[in-house]
Structures are given as C-alpha cells and as structure tokens.
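Table 4 source record.
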Amino acid sequence: MRKLRRLLTRLLLLALLVFAAIFTVNTISFSSKQVTVQPVEPVKIEDAAVERLAGALRLPTVSEEGKIDTAAFRLLDTFFQKNYPLVDSMLEKTTIGGFSHIFKWQGQNAHLSPILLMAHLDVVPVEDGGSQWSVEPFSGKIGDGYLWGRGSMDDKSSACGILEAIEMLLQVDYIPQRTVYVAFGHDEEIGGEQGAKQIAAYFKQKNIEFDFVLDEGNLIVEDALPGLDQPLALIGIAEKGYATLELTVNLDEGGHSSMPPPGSAINRLSEAIVKLRDNPSPAKIEGPVRAMFDHVGPEMSFFNKIIFANLTWTQGLVKSQMSQGTATNAMLRTTFAPTMASGGFKENVLPMQAKATVNCRILPGESVESTLKHARKVIDDEKITVSVSEKSPASEPVPAMDMGTFGYSVLQTTIREIFPEAVVAPALVIGATDSRHYQPVSKNILRFQPLKINREDLKRFHGIDERIEVESYRQMVRFYRQLILNSCK
C-alpha cells in the first residue's frame, strides 16, 4: 500500500511538472499581435469643428416607435448643408426614406472597390425631460473640456467627425483613389427599417459592393480589463442577433384577491422570468471572443498572461469571472432581459392573463429558433405561451468576418497611428447596429467608433449626462481623415 501511495505521489508530481512545463511554454510563446506603425503627427482641428458638433447636438432628432421628429431632421439636413459646404457641393447626394442620406465621393481608380463609412443621425429620447441631467440634454454645452448632449456619444460625433474629415480633405483638393461612400441612417434606434435597410437595398439594386463597411460599434476604453494598463480598442468583427420574446399567461379563471391561489397569472409569469434568470444559456469562449483574448492576453500582466495563454485549461475560471459582470457576461452567452410586464385591471381582482416581453441578444453560432427553444424548455409551463414578437423584427447573429482582409488591416493600422497607446483586438459587438442590414453588399463589415472613454462613461450611452471630451472628438476627426487617406492611396 505504501509503495502504491509513493507511486501515485510521483505520478501526481510528474503530472504537475508536465502541466507547469506546458503552461510555461504556452506563456512564453504567447507573443504580441499588435502591428508596429509610426504614430502620425496630429493635424490641427479648429475650435469651430467642436462648435459644429455642438450645433448638431442642439437639434433633437429623436426617433421612437411610430414617432420621428421630422422637423428636427429637416433642420439637421439644412445644418449640414450650411456647415459643410464643400461636402454639399462636391459630393453626390441621395436621400432615402425622407431623412437618411448617401454621399458619394468619386474616386480616380474605377478598378478599386469602394468603401462605406456609416453613422446614424437619430438619438434616443431623454427620460423625464432630462430632470436628472446636469445640463439641458439638447444644449450642446461646451465646458470643462467636455461637450455635453444627447447624441454626443451615440452617434452624431461619428457623423460630424466623418463630414469634418472629408471637408478638410476637400479644402486641400484631395481626390481619393477609390470611391468613398458615406451613409447616414435616421432610425437606427428603432431598427433601421426605413433608413439603413433601404439604403442597403439601394446599393444592392445598383450592384455596388464594398471592400469594407465601417459602422459604430466598440470603442477605445481605458481601464477596460483588470491586468491591462493600456486603453483597449476593440474592433467588432461579429454582432449578436436580436429577438424579443413575448410571454403570455392565459388561465381559465381569475378570482378574488382575498383568496389568492399559488398559481395566479402574475405569479406564473414572475416564476417564468426567474427561471430564465436562473437558467442562462451556456457560456462560450469561441470565435471573436477567443480572438479578443488571443490579442489582449499578451499585453496583460504576467499572471493574466498565464491564464489567457492557457485557456484550454483555464476557461472555466475565466467564464466564472466574466459571468459576474454585465458587459463581460454578455460577451459569453445569449442573454434574456425582461423589459416590460403587464397584467391586471383592478386592485382586488386576480387577472386571467398576464404578459411580459423579454429582449434577447443572441450569440453567433446560435439562432432565433434555438433561443426560442431554450426559453420554452426552461419555462416549461403549459399555461404560458412563448413566441417571437411580431412587433419588433428579429435578426440572426452576424457571423465573424475574416481578419486577414484589407479592411481589418487598414483599420487596425489607423487606430495605432492615431491612438499609439491603445491595444487593438477583434471583438464581438453585443448590441445591434445598422451595419447588419449591409451583409448583402459587403463581406467585410467592421464596427468601431474612434471614441476614447473611461469604463465608467459606458453608462452614459442612452443614459444620463451623455458627453464626450473635446479632445476625444478632435481625435475622432483625425482618425476618419487618416482612415480615408490610408484606404484610398
């Protein structure tokens, strides 16, 4: 028995040594994937450019389901014509759906495929009239190094940044080698059905296919991950799908609230929502998320580098840690978020019916149908109907694009030239963007907004006190200018 114990101890030590050797070799060979480029000298961006963005923010181009402030969009169109006169006079303009716009900047070489730069002009409403804001939400206030207002982050800064960059290049008589298209949708916040979807259909009808498309998406975030000192610039190469599920409880009888049964409509609906919370979809580290760790891991502190260099053995730990954060958890799995609930018509009457909507963001590799099946299996209640809402169009996840393309290469190069301190990595976009409508006209869709923020500022998206640093906006303009130069040599 003693000999057996000694043998087992030796085998255990040998196994530990083997694992230690594997971990060491993997960590040593886990080398940087960052491209080495020379930072470009920053071009001067006048204060007037910041004032122009402030002017655009003062126009409340709000889009809501069934409601669009048409007057504000018309004013924004006039504002662009007045403030970007060379873009207005020298680029060919096409209006789609009344308020979305396409600009065509003709290139010199017809053999080169065009590129498309995107943004959206609409913004989400402000809750409670902005009573909780530090400034008036549509003031476009500039102060203390910040530019405040709804749309400053999402997404008028991109739209104005693109226009500023083109206006600057037109001022020096620059002509691109390849044709550059710009597309601004007016209803991204409500699905893009009348804007981006119709623009993409226009391009398809004209047989226009793009070398790459760049839309909003991931950002440059400081303090993005524990163990990473540098800002993290994530390029979205894939996008989660979208679906809204409707949960409907139908009972044969209601009753008096003085004699409540345990299985009332509202109780059953609540239990179903709790089941979805407690039985999430499985976490997965694959595709763009695995690629992100492969690019970020080599730049992290030594302990974290060991973990990400050996994901085959450490992914359980990584999944557990990432599942604790809302943003990181969303990278790993299909999510189910209850957003609305209703039921009942009188305080002392038990309703026979109750309803809830659950918004789902679907991981690439899964589908709307598999998401629906998961919800039905987890809820497992014959009195509850689970269906995909017909009020909100569902969309399948967008698969990852190839990183070995001209578009990805030129984008990561440009990021490193303008933001040399940033670590660049591919990633999954957990929200929905207009770019998903453009799959029929390009195989290479990139989602990146050249906006540098702190992790704490992420809550300002669609939230209170939306703002950006003035210097960050100047960097956005420089980025779009340099991207056009790099893409159109």
